[in-house]
Design brief:
Elements lengths: L6 E4 L3 H12 L4 E4 L3 H11 L5 E3 L3 H6 L6 E4 L5 H11 L7 E4 L5 H13 L3 E8 L1 H7 L2 E5 L2 H14 L18 H29 L5 H11 L7 H11 L9 H4 L9 H12 L4 H13 L2 H7 L12 H37 L5 H7 L10 H11 L10 H24 L4 H14 L5 H12 L3 E2 L6 E4 L7 E3 L2
Parallel strand pairs: 1-2, 1-4, 2-3, 4-5, 5-6
Antiparallel strand pairs: 6-7, 8-9, 9-10
Helix pairs in contact: 1-6, 8-12, 8-13, 8-15, 9-10, 12-13, 13-19, 15-18, 15-19, 16-17
Length: 480
């Protein structure tokens, strides 16, 4: 009798390959398949000693090698390639089988695929997977969305290969129905964009306002990573800044082109936030900053534009400013996470997903790109109060932001004064100030809209919608 596998993996690029190895190292027999059979053969030759693999040369061959109910992990490029692979394999699957899409799919595509496969009786899980190639191999953070029945069929397997959080629990949980998992992963990536932008702005200010060199800034980030900014991205940044280019002997950061790429999940986050009416200004500024960095011709032409004469900080002020940058970075990070959680809550209500916000924070504590010490506190805040209206309404976070705000404001002002772009810090501060304002100038915007488009407005002293006839008599009447 031919050997059988507990799970199949199709798509053996870096992430698929490492997830297959992770599964095999955890004592699962794994059937492996790639569109190019040479890739499959090379995989087995290189990694076959790590566990039990069954190579397959066709979709039918892979399906035939799986135990029932069959579990198939699809690790191919998002979009049309994923649809093509699912269509190819679905011909050989049966009711009760489970397809898992572990790629960075758009949550709307996941909802569509789940509905289509449901008609055939096939379960579909859209699983956001964070941690990069190292996480895929050694333990990622996994965000699966799909029916409860589908999760029961694969939950134990996913929990086995996931990272372990500080309390020993697996960094995976059933997020909710259909596209919930991929939605949460999308927001995770949006927060990651914001986090990276804020760290980059902190570096820029430390270098061009405080006057620190990259090696000194590396030491600063090293200190910060031992405190409340303890996070993978903070620690990693210190290592990048400490690196010297072997070819030139210059700091690595000085020989890298200042044009950042992006794969799309950040854009999806901002686009979806607009559809949901959720302000994610910190994430948006990070996405726009990457886009602006690629405008080589415009940036080159704009170098003739005038700017301020930069202030030379007195030696005694450098350490104070460095501490203020830490305060600005921390406060802005909290705002970015608050915006992300607001977006998840809004989508959960919109689509009926019933996402547990504390659970989301819990599974990001290990394996993901954004593990940070305060994720424990975010999880605790939402566990204590599942109806918390926003992260900044939590007493502990509000107290910390209040303590940081003077330094935060000083840093944003210094950036404007010296012409150092800090859109992430500034947007986060504006969001904070907008939330706490007793009245916003939106009242005037409502009047403007009514003036040019008769869009009506609401009043503070009575119910209903009103319109003013913007002529000499300024007559007003209620419209509803």
């Amino acid at each position: 009798m031919s050997p059988t596998a507990q799970i199949g993996v199709t798509g053996l690029a870096v992430m698929g390959r490492n997830l297959a190895r992770n599964l095999a190292r955890n004592d699962y027999t794994v059937a492996v398949h790639n569109r190019s059979t040479d890739v499959t053969s090379a995989f087995v030759d290189e990694f076959g000693a790590e566990g039990a693999f069954i190579p397959a040369t066709s979709a039918k061959g892979l399906v035939d090698s799986l135990d029932r109910p069959r579990r198939l992990l699809v690790m191919v490029k998002a979009g049309e390639p994923t649809d093509a692979v699912i269509t190819e394999f679905a011909r050989f699957l049966e009711p009760g089988d489970v397809v898992i899409d572990g790629g960075n799919a758009h949550f709307a595509d996941t909802r569509r695929r789940e509905a289509r496969l449901h008609e055939q009786g096939i379960h579909f899980i859209g699983a956001g997977i964070s941690g990069g190639e190292e996480g895929a191999l050694h333990g990622p953070s996994i965000m699966p969305g799909g029916s409860e029945e589908a999760y029961r069929a694969v939950g134990a397997l996913l929990e086995k290969i996931a990272a372990r959080t500080p309390d020993g629990s697996p960094a995976v949980a059933h997020i909710g129905p259909d596209g919930a998992g991929h939605f949460v992963k999308m927001v995770h990536n949006g927060i990651e964009y914001a986090d990276m932008q804020l760290i980059a702005e902190a570096y820029d200010l430390l270098r061009h306002v405080a006057g620190h060199q990259p090696d000194a800034i590396a030491e600063i980030f090293g200190r910060w990573s031992a405190g409340r900014l303890d996070a993978y991205l903070t620690e990693m940044t210190g290592e990048v800044l400490a690196h010297t280019d072997a070819a030139t002997g210059r700091p690595f950061v000085d020989i890298v082109a200042d044009e950042a790429g992006q794969k799309g999940t950040g854009r999806w986050t901002v686009q979806t936030a607009l559809d949901l009416g959720v302000p994610v200004s910190g994430i948006a500024e990070a996405v726009f900053s990457r886009a602006l960095s690629g405008l080589a011709d415009q940036r080159r032409a704009a170098r003739i534009l005038p700017g301020p004469v930069r202030t030379q900080l007195h030696t005694s002020d450098v350490e104070r400013f460095t501490q203020q940058v830490e305060q600005a970075l921390y406060a802005s990070k909290v705002v970015a996470y608050a915006q992300g959680w607001h977006m998840i809550r809004t989508a959960s209500d919109e689509f009926g997903w019933h996402i547990d916000l504390g659970t989301v924070a819990g599974i990001w504590r290990a394996g993901s790109i954004v593990p940070a010490s305060f994720l424990d506190r975010i999880a605790g805040a939402y566990t204590k109060n599942p109806h918390l209206p926003g992260l900044l309404a939590d007493e502990e976070f509000a107290r910390e932001i209040a303590a940081a705000q003077y330094g935060w404001r000083t840093v944003v002002a210094a950036a404007a004064r010296d012409g150092v772009p800090a859109p992430g810090f500034a947007a986060a501060l504006a969001y904070y100030d907008s939330l706490r304002a007793e009245r916003l100038p939106t009242a005037l915007v409502q009047g403007q809209r009514d003036y040019f488009g008769a869009h009506t407005y609401r009043r503070v002293d009575r119910d209903g919608a009103f319109h003013t006839t913007w002529s000499a008599d300024r007559s007003e009447h209620r419209t509803g």
